[in-house]
Design brief:
The structure holds two protein chains of two kinds. Chain A is mostly helical. Chain A contains five helices and no strands. The chains are: A mainly alpha, B mainly alpha. Chains A and B meet through helix 1, helix 3, helix 4 and helix 5 of A and helix 1, helix 3 and helix 4 of B.
Chain lengths: 175, 160
């Protein structure tokens, strides 16, 4: 059986006349199966909620780091933005059927940074960020083993991959 | 049903890997210095992965998809710079099929295997000089504050 062969290759090369975003659509949200307005609770809600908390914690670590080392603002802004995107995508999963976007994630307000210790050395602060990213990556990696929805698994795997690249880049900056 | 989806996404992953092998063979000679060795290693890694996916598909009593004789390049590879760009492009494409395999996996083992492949693509993308993205392997990465399902069809019947 050769189902999907040619078109899948197209995702990597043949269809490359278009942007990379023409890879077969992975539809980030697509929690259609669990998205019915029925009151049945989403069995994956605990996993998603934990992932949301982890993203919020990461954002708090970034905020605390930037408060202590404001010169990193420009360097770390894109990292923060990507985590905000993760948080937003995860939060969307907890609001199935709500397409109004009436309750956007309040990413504009800085997350609470209390209790987060930031090293005074800039290099150590970056190293601490790298290990926070590694911890988050490990968490998502564990989540995707247990999460029931395959679409959630895809999103968690993607966030995990992004956090892996963050950890690598931050680690490289430390040297 | 679940297994059928796993087989389909395994086949799509294999088809993507075939394309990546072809692409790395094309771009490899254009790479310079340390990149050249990295290109060789990635090429050889994809060949190993091809064999691995082939076995997984055979174990599911299915004939693995064959490589195409040739593929269309998105742009001409004429320099070390364009070679690196194509390599990053191949990694993005493979990230997409591996992310699909994460979703198509019928077991935790295949899911974790696919997630590891996705991680590796994202890391290699950096090594080829591209910036990180928020959602490796997912479409429409940019500015997706509220990601939405795109209306584009899945490629299940795209074979001619």
């Amino acid at each position: 059986m050769l189902v999907g062969a040619a078109s899948a290759a197209a995702g990597v090369l043949s269809a490359c006349t278009g942007p990379a975003s023409e890879v077969p659509d992975p539809s980030v949200t697509a929690p259609r199966a669990g998205a019915s307005p029925s009151p049945t609770p989403d069995p994956d809600l605990p996993v998603v909620t934990a992932a949301i908390a982890a993203e919020q914690h990461l954002l708090a670590v970034y905020a605390a780091t930037l408060a202590r080392h404001p010169t990193y603002q420009a360097r770390l802004a894109a990292y923060v933005r990507r985590h905000e995107s993760h948080l937003s995508a995860l939060t969307t999963l907890t609001r199935p059927g709500d397409d109004s976007g009436a309750r956007p994630v309040t990413t504009s307000s800085p997350p609470p940074t209390g209790g987060i210790k930031v090293p005074s050395s800039a290099a150590q602060a970056l190293a601490a960020l790298a290990s926070a990213e590694n911890a988050a990556k490990a968490g998502r990696s564990k989540d995707l083993r247990t999460v029931k929805s395959s679409e959630y698994a895809r999103l968690l795997a993607s966030i995990c991959a992004c956090e892996a690249t963050h950890a690598t880049l931050l680690g490289a900056e430390v040297g | 049903m679940t297994n059928q989806r796993e087989i389909e996404t395994l086949q799509q992953a294999l088809a993507g890997v075939h394309a990546a092998i072809w692409g790395y063979a094309v771009l490899g000679p254009r790479l310079r210095n340390a990149d050249r060795e990295r290109g060789r290693q990635v090429y050889s890694g994809y060949r190993g992965l091809r064999d691995q996916l082939t076995s997984l598909i055979r174990a599911r009593r299915t004939t693995p998809v064959a490589a195409e004789p040739a593929y269309a390049l998105p742009f001409q590879v004429t320099s070390a710079t364009t070679a690196r760009r194509l390599a990053a492009h191949l990694e993005d494409g493979c990230a997409g099929v591996f992310a699909d395999l994460v979703a198509g996996a019928a077991t935790a083992d295949v899911r974790v295997f696919a997630a590891r492949l996705l991680n590796e693509c994202a890391e290699r993308r950096l090594q080829w000089g591209s910036d990180p993205v928020a959602f490796p392997g997912l479409a429409k990465d940019e500015a997706m504050a509220a990601p939405r399902r795109s209306p584009s069809p899945t490629p299940a019947n795209g074979t001619r």
